[in-house]
Amino acid sequence: MFITFEGIDGSGKSTQARLLAQALRDAGRAVVLTREPGGSPGAEEIRRLVLEGDPDRWSAETELLLFTAARRDHLERTIAPALAAGQIVICDRFADSTRMYQGLTRGDLRATVDRLHDMMIGRDPDLTFLIDIDPAVGLARARARNGHEERFEDFGLPMQERMRAGFLDLAREFAPRFRVIDGSRPPEAVAAEISAIARAVA
Ligand code: ADP
Ligand code: TYD
Would the CB of 35 count as within 6 Å of ligand 1? Predict the structure, then answer.
């Protein structure tokens, strides 16, 4: 079982991925909790290249290659071995984030994103939770964190609005594996809904 969390910055993905991992472990399941970009030593090195520094550091195409290289390493070293061992893999962001960020917001690269995905990754999750939230709320939460991985966090509100709409379009495009979750509620309420859905299928 391969489960991913998607949504705009600050929607609560990391919080919910952690709470779901805990709930499934409490139920006796073996869980690997991981994230992208990153999730393996090589991919964590690439994470620094793509998330830190000048927003214009990479062209849209180079950035897409870097995210895909990181994902390929993560898949080879972390995700595929865990799935093969019968563990549940929970990943904070995966290929849907590339379909959105590189496919939509960094140029019109969606067709290229899809071709690279087919060629180099070739695997989508069994279940994807899209945490849906008002972009103003997400932006405020993300800014309050005040970290140094800010290359993507200066998009501003209009872009976050486009991203939210884009994610909801993706949920329709890949309807069988997507569940759209209202992320505006308290974390425990969101977690209860997610864990009920996951435990019904995992
Ligand atoms: P993401 O991984 O989607 O960027 P996080 O889980 O890191 O989001 O959450 C962003 C911030 O918002 C964190 O400071 C977190 O504690 C807080 N947060 C997460 N979920 C909620 C929620 N349901 N209500 C209020 N604050 C939340
Ligand atoms: P993340 O650490 O999940 O940030 P947040 O907690 O704010 O959601 O991801 C960092 C950034 O990387 C995020 O702004 C989205 C971007 N990203 C891409 O552009 N493409 C990708 O393929 C992935 C996985 C992330």
Answer: no
